[in-house]
Amino acid sequence: MLTVLAQRTARGLINFTYHILVLVGSSVAQALNGGVIAQRQSVNALLRIRNASSCASSSSTIMAIHAEEPRGLRLLSLDGGGIRGLSELLVLRELMQRIQHQDKLPSPPLPCEYFDLIGGTSTGGFIALMLGRLRMSVDEAIAAYGRLAESVFSEKKWMGQDGMFKKTNLEKAIKDIVGKATSPPNPEVRMLDPRPEKEVCKTFVCAMAADNMNASIPRLFRTYPSPKNASYDCTIWEAARATSAAPTFFKPIDIGDTVKERFVDAGLGNNNPTMRVIEEADLIFPGRSIACIISIGSGQAHVIKLPKSSGMFQNILPLQVVQALRDIATDCERTADDLEKHFRDKPDVYFRFNVEQGLQSVSLGDWDKLGEVGTHTQQYLRKNTVDQRVSIAVKTLREAHPMVESSELVQEELR
């Protein structure tokens, strides 16, 4: 009896122990299994975090690369043309006003805030200095331009070797503008811009050495250091005077310290300085691509005709200058046509604006026809084709995507 009881007790203990072991084993197994699952879940979560972080990091890296990628250069070229230069300012005003509207700005932006480089010849050179070096708004430049035109061109003098108009009036008008645009007022401010590099709109004007005009190679007066062919460290008014010294209109100007050179404007062969602007961009912005080139003319004029026979006029100017004057009106559009052909496959890079009709009868010194220049320019801007090109130009200026290498254009010109 005791034996049977002992056996049953023993079996009960064994079964109990077995169930305990099963339960414990099951719990341990579940615990172990749960631990593995938890561990896997934790690892997966960490992997997801790492992957998300990696994606975010990659995205940030890509964004940083794009942010660091330099935008395309925005270049502005301004033709010569006497008082017809007002037309160039009116075209620029339209561009700046459209940018103001699209960017919802309180006032039109300054051209120096949008263009990396501005180059001009003669009246275009003077406008370039007002907008680039003096950082004037377009409206300020228009007002100053009107005052200068009247004070300089309203008083003629007898024809002679010193030109039709008084150089003293021109110099005084330029100095007045420079003095009012600088703080503190200083009409003797020099061309080299002391501002930090990122704040500078690089600007140059074209002039010609009076003793070597047949070479058609302009001398550039710059507001920035150049790696080669350094400019004279002259004042702003001297550079403006040099680029404005149109033969037969104003006496040449002597510039230099110990050795002086005589300069006249570069309208003789370089009245449209667009290629000079491109060449200069390639020189001072190596490796940077161009987003857009805005080239503005002062209106198409009649081809200038001068007597071929020797006489009083050739006593004033050498024969090669007389011959160059006959070509000055067609030279601008020849340059424009060449660039149009080059950019045929990329029409949204190069923009040429030039009033086609109405300004032919306006001569360089007709200051009393400024209203006429304004009327014909506004009519030109209202043309559908011109309006569309202005809209595309504004879009290109705002986006500034790199489009073409300046070195390609320079190399093609050399071929």
Describe the protein.
- This protein has 415 residues and is of the alpha/beta class.
- The chain has one domain: Cytosolic phospholipase A2 catalytic domain, CATH 3.40.1090.10.
- Helix content is 53%, strand content 11%.
- It has 14 helices and nine strands.
- The chain has helices spanning 2-68, 86-103, 111-114, 123-133, 138-153, 167-181, 236-244, 267-270, 274-284, 312-316, 319-342, 370-381, 384-399, 406-414; strands at 73-78, 117-121, 202-209, 219-222, 253-255, 261-265, 289-296, 350-353, 404-405.
- Strands 1, 2, 3, 4, 5, 6, 7, 8 and 9 form a nine-stranded mixed beta sheet that branches.
- β5 and β6 form a beta hairpin.
- α2 (86-103) runs antiparallel to α5, α2 (86-103) crosses α13 and α6 (167-181) packs across α7 (236-244).
- InterPro entries: Acyl_Trfase/lysoPLipase, PNPLA_dom.
Brief characterization of the structure:
Helix content is 53%, strand content 11%. It has 415 residues and is an alpha/beta fold.
